[in-house]
Amino acid sequence: MTVTPSRTPRADGDADGDVDVTVVPPARPTARHGKRAGKAPGGPPEPPPASGGFLARAALITAALSVAGSLLGLVRDQALARLFGAGRDTDAFLVAWTVPEFAATLLIEDGLAFALIPAFSMALARRAQGAGGDPVRALVAGTLPRLSLAFVAVGVLVAALAPQVVGVLAPGLPDPALAVDCTRLTATCVVSFGLAGYCSAALRAHRRFVAPAAIYVAYNTGIVTGMFVLGERWGVRSAAVGVAVGGCLMVVVQLPSLWRQLRKRGAEAAGVAEEPRPLGGAVVATVLLFALCRQSQVLVERFLASQLPSGAISHLNYAQKVAQMPMILSLMVCTVTFPVVARALAEGDTERARDRVQRDLALAACVVLLGTAAVVACAPQMIELFFQRGAFTARDTAATAGVMRVYALGLLGQTLVGVLARSYFSTGRASWYPAGAMAVGIVVTSWLGALCVEPWGVYGIAAANAAGITVTALVLLAGTAGGPAGTTPRRGAHRVPRSVPLHVPGVLRELSRPVGAALVATPAGAFVGGRFGDPAVGLAAGTLTVTAVFVLLGWALGAQGIASALRSVRSATRRLPHVPSR
């Protein structure tokens, strides 16, 4: 089999800059269907399952663009800290920031993607099997208009109820009027994020990853530009204006690629056109409820922190933004493989889906634990280097670094929740179990936070967050145990499982290896990093020490994620023979 990434114009004149793949395999039937991958009767050619080389390249490009977006996010936070410090104004904006944070989780990262990617994968599978008309365009016609109206209605409602929203989120806020103004500006992101999330889900199901990965580059560019252009005149409200502009840019960067996909496929489709196919209401409800529960952790944190002295919300925010970078990187592989898992289940290949999810768990755990060890070991150097300038003082550095170390203890749980949730929602059917697991975690977070906020302040809030998300991860993992039990009646020619069934004892054994490596690498990195007075040198020395110790010890312990990461890098960077795109 020969796989060739293509960035050149195809024979039909479509110069698509996204990651593409041309596969020349021996003819063989796909799993459990007895149909050959290739051109469906009366329809366009459908590629067979993506190869490991393609997935590695797609993950590498997605990670690179995501890192660029995260770095711009760091620049955004640095600009916010430099221009407005960590006090009343930033606290007011960060309460309004809850709206785009919720919208990103519900409409881009989790909720809408969990509902739409399996739906688009099923439509693509039906088209490959020779369904009449174009199932993909029928899905768009049945979902996009209704969802767009819903986005507009919710955005208008949030703007109208901004005073009540601020009162619920942060009842102890010193300047609620400023937070209300910022909330009304950020409410526009409900519409822009909804459209951006729809485009992202559709493109990823079509194995187009460049434009969706670039959205946070566009988003953070809009926010940074808004703060520097309007900051002197409008103060922290300029950041809220930047959120509104950045949300629009997220849609703009994806529209050309999505339009090419829909136009090309629609022009080639044959047969009687299908009726518009709306999403099932239960599917949308379950994924949105899960995403809402997951993001509710932020509500609990800010509600509790609003009763502490000014700057507490800001310290939590800066700590989270830096600490979450390893988690974001660890989930990049799942962003690429989620459509693969959904397509495998749509075709009835549960074993392929199980193998993919277990490999994703091993790789994501290694990445996030390496990052966690570096964050805990070098937290003071990171915060001093990234933020300590202008209105952000050494006292803010010390407080933020301490909170970040505690918060980082929940990063493995955050990553496991991200990977495991996909194993439930990739089936394309309603599943209430993830929302129930997330609700259990919220109860733990709220209860521990209420107990710990008075004696330990922001440290208690961060510890409650870490404990709650870890409990959620364990409950989700327990729900995947066993073989293909809990299946539904037949859909077509195969049975659809409730989730991707995993071998839980094996998963736990595999996770214990990188955890052991991280426990040794963290103090080693902290010791070396603390030997240097310059934060940049200390950060470099500590991070290199953590990486060396973690990789060597993880390799010695037989951590599969480390070997998988090395194979992926080799596969992504290997020069492949060229095969012209067809």
Tell me about this structure.
With 582 residues, the protein is mostly helical. It has 24 helices and 2 strands. The chain has a two-stranded antiparallel sheet with strand order 1-2. Helix 4 (111-128) runs parallel beside helix 8 (189-205) and helix 17 packs antiparallel against helix 23. The longest helix is centred in the middle third of the chain and has 38 residues, at 350-387. The chain is globular. 58% of the residues are buried.
Summarize the structure.
With 582 residues, this protein is mainly α. Helices cover 73% and strands 1% of the residues. The chain has 24 helices and two strands.
Write out the strand line-up for the largest beta sheet, numbering strands in chain order: 1-2
Instruction: Compute the number of strand runs.
Output: 2
Give a quick account of the main beta sheet: strands, pairing sense, barrel closure.
2 strands, antiparallel
What is the percent of helical residues? Answer: over 70%
Rg (C-alpha, Å): 24 Å
Bin the strand percentage.
Answer: under 5%
Distance between the termini: 16 Å
Low-confidence stretches: 1-49, 266-272, 483-494, 575-582
Average residue-wise pLDDT: 79
Shape: globular
The number of helical elements comes to 24
Q: Secondary-structure element sequence? A: EEHHHHHHHHHHHHHHHHHHHHHHHH
Would you tell me the structural class of the helices and strands? mainly alpha
